[in-house]
Amino acid sequence: MHASVLRAPSETAIESTFPRRRSLAVRRPGVIVSVIVVLAVVAAGLFAPALSPHDPVEQNIIDRLAPPAVFAGGSWEYALGTDHLGRDVLSRLIYGARIALVVGVTTVIVSGLFGLAVGLVGGYFGGWADTGFMRLLDIQLSMPFMLLALTIIGILGPSLRNIVIVLAITGWVVYARIVRAEILSLRTREFVTACRSLGGGDVRIIVRHLLPNVMSSVIVVATLEVARMMLLESALSFLGLGVRPPTPSWGAMLADGRVYLATAWWLATFPGLAISLTVLCLNVLGDWLRDSLDPELEV
Amino acid sequence: MQTWLVRRIGYSLVTLLAISMIVFSLVRLTGDPVLLFLPQDASAAEIERLREQLGFNDPFVVQYGRFLRSALAGDFGFSLKHQEPAMRVVLARLPATLELATASMVLTLALALPAGILSALKRNSWLDRLIMAGVVFGQSMPSYWIGIMLILLVSVQWQLLPPFGRGTLVHIVMPSVTLALFFTARIARLTRSGLINVLKTDYVRTAHAKGLPYAIVVLKHALRNAALPIVTIIGIEFGTLLGGTVITETVFAWPGLGRLAVDAISARDYPVVQTVVLLISGIFVSINLVIDILYRWIDPRVELT
Q: Which of B214, B206, B154, B213 is nearest to B178 (CA)?
């Protein structure tokens, strides 16, 4: 104890003040794995026709309920087995990535842009529009979302478009709240006053000075929201309120597989693994982005 | 305090009113409700007559006013499917959902609080990393998949617990575990960040500096102050839990509100749908109100908003 206190400020002190930064792969191996998995899912979605060994909706009654290749009775013809209609599970999983990605990305873009606009404009100008949107936000947060989503889709009818609409309605709140809170503290800062005193208009201040400052939070939230939206889409599809069959969706595949739980475990297991793994990796990426871009952000 | 209380209660009432308006207009979007009352081959004149009789030709505001008046008198419409007043159908299912939500909440707290506190105290240790990894896992797995995997392993493979239904204490184990996993992740994470914030404060540093034992600092100084926001979150999460049981109830055929709502939506039994949404929103808004009042009462520094 004493020895270390009395030691001259040699390179040990310097080293502890400026620790050598180890590479990302060593510090957070999970992040690298997550990037790879997410890229793989994106590739599966983009190149589904080239990657999948079979047509995802082609039925083959003779080969129905074939187990995965490594189990007794399975063959490499159907690596992950077939479902109750003899459709190839692997091909359906690959095509299912498309639905998950399309829903995740479009809802995040739609709700993100809307929430960003509400947060920016409301936080900067205030006024009745801001108050109105904040009341709407409070009201929306006190309603049971899942029930509301079910009701709206029950009324509009299940389709890809309606899912995106319902999920976008739920999503904007998150962005609006975080962006608005940040704008409220940013708008009185010196650089904003400086810009204004140099003759910068409101539009210039918002677009050139405020927007870049909130983008890091928006990126973090958007990453985590893609994951949440994918989970919600699969939940709606699971309840039969998602995209219509035979379009392969992970949630719907799981719901179909439930009936065959006792005899064909692979039908419910693989789509669930696909959802969990994708969402898990997106969450790991989102957490990492938050830690490195915006550690104070509470999401 | 008194003006604040009046304003706060008024605010809750306005929120509930707005929710009822949204739900009412949503349900009115469904097309012609009259067709549900009549046989398929009803003539146009018959449809028109019933529509006039039931008041569906009146302007929207008049219809909403009528709905509100009867709702205040306790009449939430009649369920065609169950041939009973909608509120009675819904209330009959409420105990099952409350039971499930309470069991999951108890389980959640038993897991989440120790996990969150431990990982905040041992920040950046291997234990913290392990717990946080568990949290990310818990938040990433869809609850219905966890439920199905539990059925597959525990009921089908090992035949330990009944796969679905309600009745004995054994039935509630798997649904409440399924629900609890997701909420444990959320509450553990929030407990951790709340406690970390308190541990950074000056009074905790002072307590350490004046030589108090570690346990006293943690128990008397840090945890007490971290407890308030955590209690708020728990209240809110309980509300979310009530509305979020839809999927778990579907997976385990648990006869609660969530399943009732799903069945009612597919049967186009809209009075029931409307009542479920209103009831859960009402409970949710009331919980928030009670928490806000308690919070104000326990900690008078809280701003008047």
A: B154
pTM across the whole model = 0.83
**For range B99-112, the mean pLDDT:** 92
Q: What is the mean pLDDT of residues A3-10?
A: 47
Q: Which of A152, A239, A283 sits opposite B250 (nearest CB)?
A: A239
Is the minimum CB–CB distance between B281 and chain A shorter than 8 Å?
Answer: yes
**Which chain A residue shows the shortest CA-CA distance from B151?**
A261
Residue B155 has pLDDT above 90, yes or no: no
> Is the reported ipTM for this assembly greater than 0.95?
no
Kindly compute the dihedral angle of the four CA atoms of residues B16, B18, B19, B25, in this order, to the nearest 10 degrees: 140
User: What pLDDT is recorded for position A3?
Assistant: 45
* Residue A203 near residue A70, CB atoms below 8 Å: no
- Measure A147 CA to nearest chain B CA, in Å: 7
Q: Which of B148, B193, B266 sits opposite A258 (nearest CB)?
A: B148
pLDDT at A176: 92
